[in-house]
Design goal:
The chain is an alpha+beta fold and 312 residues long. Helix content is 51%, strand content 13%. A hairpin with a 3-residue loop joins strand 2 and strand 3. Helix 9 runs antiparallel to helix 10.
Length: 312
Amino acid sequence: MITLPPEFVRTTVAREGDTGAAWLAGLPGIVAELLERWGCVPEGEVLHGGVGLVVPVRRAAGGAPGVIKVSFPHPGNVHEPDAFAVWGGRGAVLLHERDDARYAMLLERAGSSSLAEVPDADEVAEVAGLLSRRLAVPAPPHLPRLWERAAEWEAELLRDAAEVPHALPGRALDAALATVREAARYRPATMVHGDLHPRNILRADREPWLAVDPKGLTGDPAYDGGTLLKTRTPVLLSSADPLKDAHRTLAVFAEAAGLDRDRVTRWAQLLLVQGVFWGRRYGFRRARGGAELERLTGFAEWLTERLAERTE
């Protein structure tokens, strides 16, 4: 039986309560069953992300390396294998086996280092943009559509603005609402990773970089540029000219991805506004409260206003 990483246990229970604890209790048995069924043996340290356990393995037939990933059962994790199946290894790790009932997959093993470790901000944005372009293929009809969430997002923004103490200026909220309303009308049937940040882009041998942990969505690929900038906020916070660097990141990503820069900027501004409200309500993984949370959310509020100026 595998041993679960203590941090994974702690964060899962903190997030999911008794339901998470019950799932964790059965997780070693699930992994043991999958190892036997898929003909694999464990190899190396058991890893984890925010919601998924990752077990490095070697396949008995041929000895190829891989990983078994088992995610906590949640609607946001349903379409990850669907995305991998559509891409077929083009810009993302290969899907070898899947067990949808257990939210489990046997995947190609990529490297252990990620794009987040690259110090050059332009390289980070360019690699993410080029990968986004490769992943933007026609989407199957059953995947969740970004535009179908527009009404929900609008209601959430208005509710959060009324309920959550914040320092967002009206122009920043108005710009985010305008983007949501535009998203309801823009309906490309294109695959969207949905969480394309640097930690979800890994070095590999088969290709220089491969994407992992997709949400598997349909819609505007510019959404992923917004995700990239949102997750780069802590890096921008230490910049001598954060607004210039933010615009530079968006411009480099948009050019590499073949997308309209203004549309990428609008998604970034919206996702930052949503992030501000989330942080004010719940905190962030790296800052649950106190001065660090205030520093991050205060900076994000400032940045959302500056980005709103470009969308006007």
